[in-house]
Design goal:
This is Lipoprotein. This protein has about 220 residues and is α+β, with helices and mostly antiparallel strands. About 30% of the residues lie in helices and about 25% in strands. The chain contains six helices and ten strands; from the N terminus they run ααββαβαβββαββββα. It starts with 11 loop residues before the first helix and ends in a 9-residue tail after the last helix.
């Protein structure tokens, strides 16, 4: 059954993404990478879970949380994996995911455990096209993020990618730095996904393995 669209829904995606100044738009267009940290509905990569919950609740999102491992439990799981033991009985007292709804909009935020709590690693957003064409949605997204780093032909279904930190990534999937991908799916919904990038994942994995091994970060000998 199709979602009933309200008159204001046509602006929902741009509102969720935020707004950008003319100077920021010009800078993004010139560099073809994001001019500032990418965010969806105000949620950015690395944002602490407590800040995410506070911001979404303040902005009118109905928030539901789902438990996961906290840092101590993630370290214990790593230790068990190293010795081939089961981690089935480990408690889930941390935060794994937030699912949020606001009208026709849906938001999913995935977290990773860190010593200070939990931080954002993936943000997913979807909303009805609300009568917009792919060209209109592209214009709205470009107003927010600047010119995309990569874009499908205007004759093809909407498919856009924004890289960050000066990286000329070919795709948001597998990028080294945070990157954003936007598309119109087969059900005519606008979908955005913001991912942390491989560099951050590798740093986190190294930190987790050091903690599980009881070691400390390597230090220079001079």
């Amino acid at each position: 059954m199709m979602t009933r669209i309200t008159a204001t829904a046509a602006l929902v995606l741009l509102a969720a993404c935020g707004s950008a100044s003319v100077a920021e738009q010009d800078a993004a267009a010139q560099t073809r990478v994001a001019a500032k940290p990418l965010a969806i509905a105000g949620v950015r990569i690395g944002m602490p879970a407590t800040e995410v919950q506070t911001a979404l609740t303040r902005d009118g999102w109905k928030v539901e949380t789902f438990p996961g491992y906290d840092w101590a439990t993630a370290v214990e799981e790593q230790k068990r994996q190293q010795r081939g033991a089961s981690s089935f009985d480990l408690p889930r007292t941390g935060l794994a995911t937030i699912q949020a709804k606001k009208g026709d909009e849906g938001l999913s935020v995935e977290f990773r455990p860190v010593p200070a709590g939990a931080e954002v690693k993936v943000v997913k957003y979807e909303a009805p096209m609300a009568g917009r064409t792919g060209a209109q949605l592209r214009a709205q997204l470009t107003q927010r993020y600047g010119a995309p780093t990569r874009a499908a032909s205007p004759q093809l279904p909407l498919d856009l990618t924004w890289c960050s930190a000066g990286e000329p990534c070919r795709s948001a999937y597998g990028a080294a730095k945070p990157a954003l991908h936007a598309q119109e799916d087969v059900y005519h919904k606008a979908k955005l996904i913001l991912m942390e990038g491989g560099d951050t994942e590798r740093v986190w994995q190294a930190q987790l393995q050091r903690a599980a091994s009881g070691g400390a970060p390597a230090k220079s000998s001079f």
